[in-house]
Amino acid sequence: MGASSWLLMSLLLAGCGDQGLTLFYDTGGRDTGAADTGSTDTAADTGTDTAADTGTDTGTGADTGATDTAADTGSADTGSADTGSADTGSGWSYADRTLPPTYNRVTHSQGPIDFTAVAWAPDGTYALILGYPASLYLYDAGTAEVTAVGSASGESWKALAFSTDGTYALIGGGKGAIPTPVLYAYTEGGGLQAISDLIGTADGKLPPTSRIQALSARPGTGAFAVLSDNAASWPSQITYMNQVTPDLGGTWGWSFHGGANSDQGASSVAWGRDGDDDIALAVDNYLELFYFDPALTSGQFAVQSTPNTGNLRTVRFRPDGQVAWVLNWSGNGKVYTWAGVLRNDAQNSYAFGGWYRSTFDISPDGTWKVFVGSNGTVYFSDSPWQPIDGSRFHSEPIPSWDQPPWNGSSNDYLTGVAWRPGTCEGLLVGDATDAKGMIVRFSLH
């Protein structure tokens, strides 16, 4: 698979939340915005214009007269002098966004639900939100309405991920104290569908005593990584890796890639690249970092040696898949880099201040990383992925967390965050702080 598959989300930059920005491209180069010096153009364009110019010049200065060096894509100029300022249709980028963010609580009628995870459909039209212990909600981006779309009794749902084409999402978890795995598929047209025939490692399926803890769609394919564990106590805890290629109308393709001893329950998995190979990294809630290479003929899923990192929680890859950040939840939390190996030296780590960190997500192009935790704490970072620049981590807590409309406390957690594709906004979700579960819309401007 080519590296271009990893840049798919970067190409969705068609707008920025409600900013109303539009991308326009000019094959002769983007205007720099400097004022023209005042006189009429004196040198001929070197290329033939082929379509009408789309922007009206609005500045007051004259052009300097330098000859254009690349062909315009527009139709022939009408002959009037340029008046000077940059074209108003120039494109935006995530790097142009600035802090502080705007926070708005989403009102809904779903009651005091503790929301645990959130994921956006790839087209950004809606998000799915998990509620504890086993309920599913749809957030409509156009109306900001929250609708219950499914639930189950006696189950606990932990995992949520969309297919790469956005036609469905998978929801995974377990049922019972000695768990058996449960898996559902959600489509807008068909709702929530329970998936049967999940068990049997000899057939590539899940171990009979296991619970699904994390899911991740493999870029460029229809497959998912399925991370599960047996819910046992150390030293009998085992974390497992499967792949599944769903077929909502037919037979699902399963493969089992083994298990590895761990100390606490599995918590996160994400696809990346190691050289030219698709690989996945996974973590439990303790010290283990798991490395999965489906191209190997044996030992595909194994613990990768790590330095002293503390308890690991969440993995996210840069859009090209070559570098990952791994979040530690011990104490106030830390973040480390992975590029073949996990590193925790000063150039490859950052230690947060204040309160506990739950998880994080990245903007579609990888510029911004958003970390959430307890007591309304939120961090934004535009640090390079490697080396990490600690000066570019910014504490941006939800203001007046203990006051309306938030009504939160230090015991209330933000437990999920997801960036809406193609925009400069996203959703934070968490514990119910009053009569309603917490859903917060954030925006950068």
Description:
The protein is built from no helices and 29 strands. It is globular. By secondary structure, the chain is an all-beta fold. Helices cover 0% and strands 38% of the residues. Strands 18, 19, 20, 21 and 22 form a 5-stranded antiparallel β-sheet that branches.
Based on the model shown, name its key terms.
single chain, 445 residues, mainly beta, Methylamine Dehydrogenase, Chain H, 2 domains, five-stranded antiparallel β-sheet, four-stranded antiparallel β-sheet, 29 strands, disordered N terminus
Structural class: mainly beta
Whole-number tally of structural domains: 2
Overall mean confidence score, pLDDT? 83
Characterize the overall form. globular
Q: What kind of assembly state do the chains in view correspond to?
A: single chain
Per DSSP E runs of 2 or more residues, the count of β-strands stands at 29
Provide the gyration radius in Å: 24 Å
Which residue ranges are poorly predicted, with pLDDT under 50 across at least 5 consecutive positions? 1-15, 17-90
What fraction strand? 35-45%
Task: Using the coordinates shown, work out and report the CATH topology of the largest domain.
Answer: Methylamine Dehydrogenase, Chain H
Helix content: under 10%
Name of the level-1 CATH class of the largest domain:
Mainly Beta
Tell me what the CATH architecture of the largest domain is: 7 Propeller
Topology record:
Elements lengths: L101 E4 L9 E6 L5 E6 L3 E6 L5 E6 L3 E8 L6 E7 L4 E8 L3 E4 L16 E7 L6 E6 L8 E8 L7 E9 L4 E9 L2 E8 L4 E4 L8 E4 L7 E6 L6 E5 L5 E5 L3 E2 L5 E3 L5 E6 L6 E5 L4 E4 L11 E3 L18 E6 L5 E6 L7 E6 L2
Antiparallel strand pairs: 1-29, 2-3, 3-4, 4-5, 6-7, 7-8, 8-9, 10-11, 11-12, 12-13, 14-15, 15-16, 16-17, 18-19, 19-20, 20-21, 20-22, 23-24, 24-25, 25-26, 27-28, 28-29
